[in-house]
Design brief:
Blueprint: E1 3-9, H1 17-24, E2 35-40, H2 43-50, E3 57-63, H3 65-77, E4 86-89, H4 95-100, H5 105-114, E5 116-125, E6 132-133, E7 136-140, H6 141-152, H7 157-168, E8 176-180, E9 183-186, E10 194-198, E11 220-225, H8 228-241, E12 254-255, E13 257-262, E14 266-268, E15 271-273, E16 277-291
Helix pairs in contact: 2-3, 6-7
Length: about 290
């Protein structure tokens, strides 16, 4: 039977994650399992938790997509990227958990006990605030909405999401340059809606706008929406049908490297980052995550 170190993001899901973990540890099967818990709000807290990690214990990221990315980055920094990592999806959207089939808490707990180690790719970046992304990175509508949401979510998460979406939902923007293999495919003066680089098929809540994205193929999906109408039509299809139709387009290539230069904020795994010029590269099998057995 596995033993675990739960790395718990105290700020996940509005701050109620700690009480949820406490209740979870009192119920089967975790009530009869060797579990240690380390709380954190920043990288220093994760590092202190990892300092207690011995060779027999499985680290578990407890929170949302940002938590998974932070834990993955620090495991790599400690030379532990081949150590299987568990995920307890107690964040808001949990896009990675949906992508791996462990979105429900019961399925995630069962996977901790009985899951198999699955090597998965990661997006390595030169952005100083997000050296590792496990889910997706985007610039444009999504990054502007994310920035607004994070600024307002202390009042109400749902009100913040609605207000941010209504404020930004029909904007096209410029100031973003995209280079693929040394060739510029989006100019700074071009008007666009959104540019996204995707490692996983799902966004939060099980919405699946990138059904072709495979976190084990050594590639990322680059998707460019020039108009907001096409973006929202595509996202509506993904929300209603849980899988959008795959329509090949020349501006949606599958790539391994991309360079982004933007005056707009950046979105990475649901977190808002500062504008930057940075590169993204797919590193195959960069992490190992416990996934449901087939």
């Amino acid at each position: 039977m596995r033993s675990f170190l739960l790395l718990v993001n105290e700020r996940a899901r509005g701050g109620d994650v700690v009480s949820r973990v406490e209740r979870l540890l009192k119920t089967p099967p975790l009530d009869d399992t060797d579990v240690q818990t380390a709380l954190f709000v920043d990288d220093d807290g994760i590092c202190r938790g990892l300092s207690t990690l011995d060779a027999t214990r499985t680290p578990v990221a407890v929170g949302g997509d940002g938590t998974v990315g932070s834990v993955a980055r620090l495991l790599r920094a400690e030379g532990l990227s081949d150590r299987p990592m568990g995920v307890l999806p107690l964040g808001t959207g949990n896009g990675l958990a949906h992508s791996l089939g462990i979105a429900s808490l019961s399925r995630a707990v069962a996977t901790l006990q009985d899951g198999v180690p699955q090597p998965v790719d990661a997006l390595m970046t030169t952005h100083p605030q997000a050296p590792v992304s496990m889910l997706n990175i985007s610039v444009g509508l999504e990054s502007l909405v994310t920035r607004d949401y994070q600024a307002w979510r202390h009042k109400s998460r749902w009100t913040a999401a609605l207000a941010a979406g209504m404020r930004r939902g029909l904007w096209r923007v410029s100031g973003v340059a995209v280079d693929v293999d040394g060739q510029r495919i989006v100019q700074r003066q071009d008007k666009i809606c959104n540019v996204g680089m995707h490692n996983m098929p799902c966004y939060g809540f099980g919405v699946t706008p990138q059904p072709s994205a495979d976190p084990t193929d050594g590639q990322m999906d680059l998707r460019i929406h020039l108009s907001c109408a096409s973006y929202w039509a595509y996202m509506a299809s993904a929300t209603i049908r849980r899988a959008s139709p795959i329509v090949p387009r020349p501006d949606w290539p599958r790539i391994r490297q991309v360079k982004i230069s933007t005056v707009l904020p950046v979105q990475a795994d649901g977190e808002s980052l500062s504008p930057a010029t940075f590169e993204i590269e797919v590193v195959p099998a960069a992490m190992t995550i416990l996934a449901p057995a087939l």
